[in-house]
Every structure is written in C-alpha cells, then in structure tokens.
Amino acid sequence: PPRVTLPHLICPTWPLCPHNLPNGRELRRVPRALPGDLRALDLSYNKLQEIAAGDLAGLPLLRRLDLAFNNISRLAPDAFAANRLLEQLRLFNNSLAHIPAPALRPLANLRCLDMSNNLYGRAALDGVFGTLRHLRELWLGGPLLREIGRDDLAALKDTALQKFALKTAAGPLRYRAGAFSWLNVTELWCDMALDGSAAALPALLRDLRGKPLETLRFRNLFEFLVFYRGKFDDAGISGLRLDRLLLQDISNPDVLRFDWTFTWLSGVAALSIVNVNFNFVPCDAWGEMRNVRVLNVTGNRLEDAYLYSQRCHYGAVMPKLETFVLANNQLSSLAVLAALTLTWPRLSSLDASRNGLGARRETCRWNGNLRWLALSHNQVTAAAFACLPTGLEYLDLSHSQLDRLDASFFSRSRRLRELRLSGNKLKFIPSGWTCPSLEVLAIDGNSFGVLARGSFGNMPRLASLAAGDNPYHCTCELYLFLQETRRRRRPSLRDWPGNWTCYHPEELLDTAVAAYTPWPLECDVPALVAVAVSGTAAAAAVAAALCWKFDVPWYVRATWRLVRSRYRGRRGGGGVARRCAYHAFVSYSRADAGWVRRELLRRLESATPPYRLCIHERDFTPGRWIIDNIIESIEASAKVIFVLSRSFVDSEWCNYELYFAHQRAVGLGSEDVILVVKEPIDARGLPRKFSRLQKMLGSKTYLEWPPEPSRQPFFWMQLRNLLGSPRDGETGRFRAAVSAASQGRAAKPKGAVFLPFRPSPPI
C-alpha cells in the first residue's frame, strides 16, 4: 500500500498522498513515463545507486520525494533542476560520501531535508545552505562523522530551524568550540558518543547559551557514564536554564552526585531519573531540588531506608513538589512513604506502583493534601487499609493480590471519587459497602460471582462500573441487578457485555451473561409468591381429600415407629443406616473437568438405570462456603470417587476433599473410597500434605484409566461393580433389612425397625 507518513520528518502541512508506485521493488533506476502531475513520489527501499540528470525532469510539480534506504552514492549537479517546487527531500540511509550541495542549489522552496546516516566524514555545509531560507528541518551525519568544525554550520546562521538533528560516529568525536553557536533552532537532537571526549559536552552546552531552545535531546551520549564529584557550574554553564531534565537508561548508581553542590538542580521544575539503577538519595540533594514540582524516579533500586534516612533533615524541603512518581522500585513500607510525604506541603499526587508495599500491618501519618495515590502491582492485604489516607479522591489498588476489603475504610473516605481494584482476588462484595462520593469503580478480573440489587446501594453517585471477567453465578440476583441497572441507566457498565460470562450453573458455563434470560416467574418474586400460595392451597385441598380415601393413621404410626427405633438405636450405640442423595461424589481438578464431563458423567449418568453423581461445579449450593459444600456433599454420597492426576496433586481443594473423605472412611469403612488413576503419578514423590493419598495408594486397590479404547469397557465394568447397582437406594444394615422385609424374612438388625411396607421408588 502507499506510504502516508515518513519517519524522522515532521511536515504536517504537506500533502500526504504519494504516488501509488509501491516501494521495495528492487528498482535500479528511476522509472520512466511517470505521470507529469505527480506531487509526491516514494522510491524508498530499492537499489538505486544514482540520480542522474533527467531522471526527474518530467516531474515539475513534485513537492515530496523519498529516496531513503537505497544505495545512492551520486547525485548529478542538475538532478533536481526541474523540481524547483520540491519541499521535502529524504536521502536517509544511503551511501553519499559528500554532502551534495550542487544538487540542492535549485531547491529554494525546500523545507525538510534528511541526509543523515550517509557516509560523509565531515558536516561542512556549503554556502548553498544559506540560500535555503525556507528550511525548517535538517538532519545530518552518519557513522563516519568524527569531527564537527567550528565553521561547519556557519551557513545556517540566518536560518530559523524548527529542528536540527546530528548523528556522529561511535568513536571519539572532535567537537570544536563554537560549532553550535551558529544554530538558531528550537529543537536539537544529538545522537553522539562522547566517551572519549567528555570535555566536548560542556563546550557544546556553552555554545547553546542564549539560544531559543525548547527541547534538547541526547541519545547514546555515554556508553559508560561516570559522574565525577565536583561543582557543575565550573563547566561555565550556570546561565543554562532548564524546565525539564531527564536522565534515563544510565548505569550509574551515584547519578545524583554529578553536581556535588546540586546548584544545577535548583532551576529544574520537572526532574526525571528513570532506569539508572541508583539506590540512594543524599540528604543535601532534597533541599537543592527546591523548585522541583514533578519528581519521577521510576525503575531504580530505591529501598525504604535509603529513600527516607533518619540522618537527614527533611523539614521544609522541596516546598513546591506536587507530583512524586517512584514506581518500579524496591519499597516495602507504607509508613516510611507516608512519613516522607509529610515534609512536602503541596504534594497531591503519588505513584508507588510496582513495589512491595502493603503486606505489613503499620500505622501511618500522611500529608493531608494527598489526593491521588497509585499502589497497583503491589502486595496489599486487608490490613493495609488501616495505613491508607482517607482524604483521597483517586485510589488504584489493581493487580495487588488483594483478597478482601475493609469496608470501614471506604465509609471514612468521604472524598474518594475513583477506585480501581482490577485484577485482584476478591471473592465477594461486602454487604452494605458504603462510599458516599464514589463515581468510578473498576472491580473486573476478580473472583466473586454474585452481584445483587443492593451491592452498590450505598454509593449514590456511582456512574461508571467495570465488573467483567469474574466467575458469575447466573441466577436471579445477577439478573435483577442488571435489570435495575438498565432501568436506572446508572451505573454505566463500561465493559458490558464483552467480558461478562457465566461460570455457574454448569449448563450455562461460558455463556455470555447477556444471553441469560430466566423464565418470567423465576425471578419475579411477587408473582412467584402468588403462584406458590395458590398452588399450596390447591395442594392442601387435594391432600385433605386424599386423607379420607387413604389410610393416614397408618402413615402416622409407621413414622412414629421409625423415629422411636432410630432413637433407641442411637442410645444403644448401634449404627444407623445411611440413605444417600447421591451414589458417588466425584473429586477432580479443574484440568480434568473435561474428562469427567465427557467420559465419567456420560457413562454413569446415562446408564440404565442411571447413577446419581455429585460434582462441585454443578451441584454445590451457590453462595455457601466451599468447605461446607464439600462436607455436606461427601456426607450425602454413598461413595467418593477420586480422579487422580498430576493436576489433582497440585490442587488445594482436592486435598481438602481427600481429607474429609478419609475422615468419613475412618468411621464407615474404606470401601466407600474409589481411586481412579487417570494418568500415572509417583506416590513416593507426592508432597507431604498428601500422606493420606500415599497410604491409600499403598494399601488399596485402584482403577487405572486405559488410553486404549479396546480396554475401556472392562474399566467401566469394574467401576460399576465397585459402585454397586444404582437401584440400591438403601445402604448398610438398613438396606439388608428392607430387602429381607420385602422377601418376608424377619431380619432385624439392632437399631432398625420393621414397618408395614408399601413399595416406593428408591432415593
């Protein structure tokens, strides 16, 4: 496709519609028969070696020409004789051994010229450049430029440049004093190495004294930078005034000592020391930065004791500081950071993200003017809220491993308007969460699954909410919350509907929440109550009628005998027979969920008659504690099936389930536990916390899942034998008693009672 922009050159007023001739065709000469009305031509990335006289003679209207990334070593003196309207010429990255001044003579309208990254060894400009009075951007130099003479740039003395860029060789540079004194430029970029000629830097800066510079940029200045202790004013640049100073990507931990008396820092308003690996702030440095309003020390190795030293006097230092950025350091104490802010009366914004803050229980005193605090990517716990300032308007705690909120902190934060908690581990939203002034809330990427109509009822100003990427329980509570949000039109859901998906119940797993539409009466409580009352009344009427027809006293006597029998059996120490809601509880890791649903459930629950299996992602009660769900589900199951794999060993919840099953097996017998080895595991290499599993594998026969389809029918036959018949609704001695009673035998174990028997479907 045609290229629309050119790197390195800033010419926003020019037409940006180059000719449709694609670059990179490996052209060796300028194509013939080009349209005579062309205004822009891109011939970059070809193999041109020369622009000869006449190559561009048929393009008198040409204003923009890109010849970059070729191998041009010669420009004919009259190469551009017919292109007097040319405004932009790019010769970047070619093989010119000399600056082609004769070829540039006709280009009086030239505004942007890029001749950098060529092979000339001197940057001496011919008098032709003095005639280019419209020139605004000039790029010179290359890998062979090792000397800048005093008068090399003299031709530019009357040219008001917006940008001048100079690239020099990687080796030692000979800079002659006065070379830059000819420049009249607003923006100066220098890509030069001064390792072998460090004295050139003060000379260069002296030449810029009094210039209308707004931006001065150095790149690759020193490969190995060493600042010697001394007074920087000795270099003779005390008149140089700076508004912003950036020291970046320098491998020197003592970078602040480049000006021993720090007099150079006293005139800086925005100081950035980024990625220089320094880890210590001298006491006297703070006081000399008295005019700094913005201080950025991102990406260093600052620790608590070296940032805030007890030996330093911080009273009334940096009185103008408003913004402090110390992200990506090695801080761990919020109390130390808070103590430091007390010395800065105007500080309102603090960014301490990407440290190790928030893991300690501390007491903190903060600057009362602090309004903006970023602590993302830290290690914040719920205890850290006691150390946070309550006068904030903005607080960012995203991606900080936070698993619980302190609701009392937010009720005290009367000014808080924006809160970011994305990417944490929050498992629930506090009931009655109060934050009176909150307007923007981000809680996406956490672990909670329930939102209800009252979740944000105590946030009257909440206008924007991001809450996607959470494992939502698609129930009436969530549906009613969304219905009310749409009706009130606030808060607006910023990430709706893309990141909102259902996690529970299983039949809606990975379904978009927007697609969840319950049947009309399911979530309409008044209508549901009306239907329930009507149905109950009708059922009561039917039951009353049936009582006259059926032997109700018989059912009363039978129930009374059963209760009395169980009571006597418990007092006598006899066991009570167990009747279970499920034939088996299945314990497995999330990584094996596909196999469980695809193989185990399909085979057993579709059998005739079917088995009833309990799995957590389908049968656990939403909103209850996981541990309670595990215990009750195991107690309600006749057997427990463990699907063993390497992922099972890595799961903390699987370990809990194994523990509870083992405790039950102590009282009821280990035959209730069935081990299915889905993939080979080394019992001897299991972690210590799986000692129960080691004992079971060493003493109990287990089933191995065969990968070969031909052997799998035998596996399912073995598993069904261990589970027993799905028709067996009773277990233990009670099952035997019922069986005997149905056959007319008088088997009556201790603690059991025979009732007048009427057949009913098994549980």
Which helices and strands occur, and which strands form pairs?
Blueprint: E1 40-42, E2 50-51, E3 64-66, E4 74-75, E5 88-90, H1 101-104, E6 112-114, E7 137-141, E8 147-148, E9 161-167, E10 174-175, E11 185-191, H2 200-207, E12 215-219, E13 244-248, E14 270-274, H3 283-288, E15 294-296, H4 304-307, E16 323-325, H5 334-341, E17 349-351, E18 372-374, E19 394-396, H6 407-412, E20 418-420, E21 440-442, E22 464-466, E23 471-473, H7 476-488, E24 492-493, E25 501-504, H8 525-549, H9 552-571, E26 582-587, H10 593-605, E27 613-614, H11 616-619, H12 626-635, E28 637-644, H13 646-649, H14 652-668, E29 673-677, H15 691-699, E30 703-704, H16 712-723, H17 732-742
Parallel strand pairs: 1-3, 2-4, 3-5, 5-6, 6-7, 7-9, 8-10, 9-11, 11-12, 13-14, 14-15, 15-16, 16-17, 17-18, 18-19, 19-20, 20-21, 21-22, 22-24, 23-25, 26-27, 26-28, 28-29, 29-30
